[in-house]
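FYI - complex with nicotinamide-adenine-dinucleotide, inputs then prediction.
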Amino acid sequence: MKIAVIGTGYVGLVSGVCFSDFGHEVVCVDKDSRKIEMLEKGKVPIYEPGLDRLMERNVETGRLSFTIDLNAAIDGSEAVFIAVGTPTRRGDGHADLTYVMAAAEEIAKAAKDYVVIVTKSTVPVGTNRKVAEVVRAANPDLDFDVASNPEFLREGAAIDDFMKPDRVVVGVETDRAAAVMASIYRPLYLREFPIITTDLESAEMTKYAANAFLATKITFINEIAALCEKVGADVKQVARGMGLDNRIGNKFLHAGPGYGGSCFPKDTKALARTAQEYASPIQLVETVIKVNEEVKRRMVDKLLDLCDGSFNGKCVAVLGVTFKPNTDDMRDAPALTIVPALVGGGSTVRVCDPQGRREGEALLPSVSWEDDPYAAADGADLVVILTEWNEFRALDLSALAKRMRTPRLGDLRNVYTAEDAQKAGFQAYVSIGRADLI
Ligand code: NAD
């Protein structure tokens, strides 16, 4: 089957590459000609482990290609996936659907024969019906169906998540569209994962409900962590004790500096906004959004305490700025709150991140960059672990402490313990949700 994918970002590119690996003929389209030029040269514009090799393999077979020419991509395609961004609209928290609707109109104008227009972007309930209206208005004679196929992949593990999904959710209105979607995902059936076929609205809601639930779980453990610090409990032990209960599960129970990334912040806001519009506010999600901001601010206070109440004149090494390890994505990363607070307080900040520099340089203009965590710590008064990259999980803490002017460690991912830090010669250590003894 020939498939077109509009948007070659984290979701579109991974989807296109994986669909071609299933055996489909895939054309990936992007408006950004620089991205397409890179892709045509075999270079991947984002950091996603394993994507370069899988892309190369499928380009070699002739099944995968890239273009800025939407018309050519759509010609003969039975399905067109919209995988463009849906950022937060400025001012009101609603998802900005400008890119989705523009793509829908372009598809309508380019398509000639029956096609299923599939929204893979995360879009508020009701959007697929609006996509259908836009297509109908732009090309009244076109024979088409719309389908909602929200994506659940995680950056950093995207290929595995796409190839071995827990489930695939497909919202359709006709048997014909359901059949096209089934044949697209058929190569995965061998793995016996569930494909959930629903109406359009349920598919759209499933994505937001899932993300809001995960954001709530993270925020829940972050609040428990704050209380653990006060009462002398250890949140790691508490989370383990909770997570071994099958009804709860151990995922998304790691206390940290607040959730970030390209999905949870914007999707929780968009869900809260939709709920308000329908006069059915989801107070729990509204609170999660508020608490997550407080969690990030609490991190700044923690570091301030560690620096005896002032960042002024201090030299701080920040290890990790991407919103999580194994991605170069900086969107809504906690670092974007915490690093400016350090700089604003008068610190000199050095950043070390295995993949974050390319995006981070523009977002964190007042810092310097180091490739090596030990070099970043040279003469520093504080080292902060903000993202738990593997590179920062087995540091030689003694060597790190020796290079510092004042050895203090802000471990905002609970990678180490107060005991580890003390043995290594740190004067002060803080982590999350534990009564740190030094
Ligand atoms: P992204 O910003 O990385 O990529 C979007 C791409 O679309 C860009 O390359 C942009 O140039 C291109 N584009 C925009 N309009 C276009 C048009 N009319 N024609 C051709 N190309 C166009 O976005 P992303 O992170 O891949 O997210 C895409 C969607 O998937 C969002 O709705 C997001 O919420 C959802 N999603 C993202 C993730 C994730 O982990 N990133 C996971 C699940 C779902």
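Residues 6-12, 29-32, 35, 83-86, 99, 102-103, 106, 121-122, 151, 153, 155, 262-263 surround nicotinamide-adenine-dinucleotide (CB under 6 Å). The chain has 17 helices and 14 strands.
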